[in-house]
Write a structure and sequence with these properties.
This protein is α/β, with parallel strands linked by helices and about 575 residues long. About 25% of the residues lie in helices and about 25% in strands. The chain has 4 domains: about 120 residues, Sandwich (Immunoglobulin-like), CATH 2.60.40.10; about 300 residues, Glycosidases (TIM Barrel, Alpha-Beta Barrel); about 55 residues, Oligo-1,6-glucosidase, domain 2 (Alpha-Beta Complex), CATH 3.90.400.10; about 80 residues, Golgi alpha-mannosidase II (Immunoglobulin-like, Sandwich). Strands 11-12-15-18-19-20-21-22 form an 8-stranded parallel beta barrel. Strands 3, 4, 7, 8, 9 and 10 form a 6-stranded antiparallel beta sheet that branches. Strand 16 and strand 17 form a beta hairpin. Helix 7 runs parallel beside helix 8 and helix 13 packs parallel to helix 14. The chain is globular, with a radius of gyration of 26 Å. One of its GO terms (molecular function) is hydrolase activity, hydrolyzing O-glycosyl compounds. InterPro entries: GH (IPR017853), GH13_cat_dom (IPR006047), Glyco_hydro_13_lg-like_dom (IPR004185), Glyco_hydro_b (IPR013780), Ig-like_fold (IPR013783), Malt_amylase-like_C (IPR032091), O16G_dom_2 (IPR045857).
């Protein structure tokens, strides 16, 4: 065994409390190097009477490593533990003190989980596990009230640019709630709705006022109430990293410079404020002068923004916040933000925009979730062409699953595209079969899925601003077959809790073969998903000993032959099977 590859630390995503009775332990070994692992456990104050062994299960792999996991229920809430790795006739023990050829006497030098404190546990809202989000840009969804259209307003359906407007508003969303409900989603994520000079509204002017082009605060209240009456949650977008250059307090700094009482609200490097060679003399989002960056470490700034976060939860009863450019704001701010938001609504869902490994925001003291762009990147890379094999794809997904604890994976915000990326249909070369493979994976995978408005009826679009096209409401121009497919898969996910909270594992993902099989499993149901990511018709085979499988979409009984399930798949086809346990 290659001992240099052994890895475990008694914290973070390697040792964590899954619930108030259960600790999950993970350990890493070299790929295909270790045959089995036992977790050796006991209470440090009474090792002999509490001693127990737990076989570990290989739950994921990547290109270089295998990842093993055990679920342990300590009798007294605390745990000392080590690992025994076995390969052939060789056995070694790993404890916090090192790697040993003979078992060291416990519990001294063993790993230690001192106690399961429920108050310290990561805990996301339970409803987020069952949520299926629908992302809407209010300006591009529907024009329900022409009286608030900006001047100029271009005809609906024109080519989007960085600064044109088409008149979409909150009333337009209210008018189409039947459509949203019929699709089957049960949560809406709205990009910013607060007063702003731009069409995208990510440069806020007034944080407690709905943009007049969208309606009023009362209109937003009507929308949220109407959604709640239909069982639909509403999450708003908060831009706390930066504001508009027209934000009154920033304008005070423009006028009065370092003498302004708001000078320390921003990160100013040099006065007077200026832009030289495209670089502002104050920090901004990117290098955009019209988006000055807040100094969120300033207590007055912090209190101002925390009041905003609390205001919309209490006044409008929103169900959560999506946090723009969340990774560029200090952790102290986000810890206080969570306290304020959860005090106002313990069930609020907090989603940060972080594009990379986000573990340090997901320790239970800041966010419930992040936008999982690494997920979308790997899924689109695999299903947009057939060059990547299943082995490489499974390695990528295994690596991502091991980034976070299980309860985080259960509510991580998975998406295929958004207002910041090209649309899924464009990413896959406008091949609808490949879109379907992406959507099947999204809606049968672990996490909280989000669908970008219009994807379900075939909207295309390249990078921003092209991905922000107007919603198509002419049914003759909508892809109704694709819409029905989305509805079918959304309904499937809602009907079976195993697709929302069951374990995930690849059953077949071989080198040189783009075809894959994976499973979702819990205590009473077993789903298997078969995918042919090739342009050729194929038969995909895998051992399946029981004969009680059914097609989840057709209800047809599917029986293996001599313990082998042989599934015929169309080019770029899929099939979903299930059985009750």
């Amino acid at each position: 065994m290659l001992r240099e590859c052994f890895y475990h630390v008694s914290q973070s995503n390697w040792a964590y409390a899954y619930d108030k009775h259960t600790i999950h332990l993970r350990v890493r070994t070299k790929r295909d190097d270790v045959m089995d692992i036992l977790t050796i456990t006991g209470d440090k104050y009474d090792w002999d009477r509490t001693y127990a062994e737990y076989p570990m299960k290989k739950t994921a792999s990547d290109a270089y490593f295998d990842y093993w996991e055990a679920s342990v229920k300590p009798k007294y809430g605390r745990l000392s533990y080590g690992f025994r790795m076995n390969a052939g006739s060789e056995s070694v023990w790993m404890t916090e003190s090192g790697i040993h050829d003979e078992q060291p006497a416990p519990p001294g030098g063993y790993y230690d989980f001192p106690y399961i404190h429920e108050v310290d546990m990561y805990a996301a809202p339970e409803w987020a596990k069952s949520a299926i989000f629908y992302q809407v840009i209010p300006e591009r969804f529907a024009n329900g009230d022409p009286s608030n259209d900006p001047d100029p307003t271009e005809p609906w359906g024109g080519q989007p640019t960085n600064d044109n407007s088409f008149g979409g508003d909150l009333q337009g969303i209210i008018d189409h709630l039947d459509y949203i409900e019929n699709l089957g989603v049960n949560a809406i994520y709205l990009t910013p709705v607060f007063h702003s000079p731009s069409n995208h509204k990510y440069d806020t002017l007034d944080y407690k006022k709905v943009d007049p082009q969208f309606g009023s605060n009362e209109t937003l209240k009507q929308l949220v109430d109407a959604c709640h009456a239909r069982g639909i949650r509403v999450m708003l977008d908060a831009v706390f990293n930066h504001c508009s250059e027209h934000f009154p307090f920033f304008q005070d700094v423009v006028r009065h410079g370092e003498k302004s009482e708001y000078a320390d609200w921003f990160h100013v490097r040099e006065y007077p404020l200026a832009v030289q060679d495209g670089i502002p003399s104050y920090d901004t989002f990117g290098f955009f002068p019209h988006m000055p960056k807040f100094n969120t470490a300033n207590l007055r700034v912090k209190q101002y923004l925390l009041d905003v976060a609390e205001y919309w939860i209490k006044e409008i009863q929103i169900d959560g916040w999506r946090l723009d450019v969340a990774s560029e704001i200090d952790h102290h701010f986000w810890r206080d933000f969570r306290k304020v938001v959860k005090a106002a609504n313990p069930d609020a869902y907090i989603v940060g925009e972080v594009w990379n490994d986000s573990m340090k925001w997901l320790l239970g003291d800041q966010f419930d979730s992040v936008m999982n762009y690494p997920f979308s990147s790997k899924v689109l890379e695999f299903f947009s062409q057939s060059a990547m094999d299943g082995y490489t794809f499974a390695n990528s997904m295994g690596f991502l699953l091991m980034r976070y604890p299980q309860q985080t994976n259960e509510v991580i915000f998975n998406l295929l595209c958004s207002h910041d990326t090209p649309r899924v249909l464009t990413c896959v070369g406008e091949d609808k079969r490949r879109v379907k493979l992406c959507v099947v994976f999204l809606l049968t995978y672990m996490g909280t899925p989000c669908i970008y408005y219009g994807d379900e009826i075939g909207l295309t679009g390249g990078p921003d601003p092209d991905c922000r096209k107007c919603m198509e409401w002419d049914t003759d121009k909508q892809d109704n077959e694709l819409y029905d497919f989305y509805r079918l898969l959304i309904a499937l996910r809602k009907d079976y809790d195993v697709l929302r909270s069951g374990s995930f594992r690849f059953l077949k993902a071989d080198p040189g073969d783009p075809r894959i099989i994976y499973e979702r499993l819990n205590g009473h149901m077993h789903f298997t998903v078969w995918m042919n990511n090739t342009e050729e018709e194929t038969v995909l085979s895998h051992p399946m000993e029981t004969d009680d499988w059914k097609d989840a979409l057709s209800g047809e009984t599917v029986i293996p032959e001599d313990g082998i399930m042989n599934i015929k798949l169309d080019p770029l086809g899929y099939r979903i099977l299930y059985r009750f346990l």
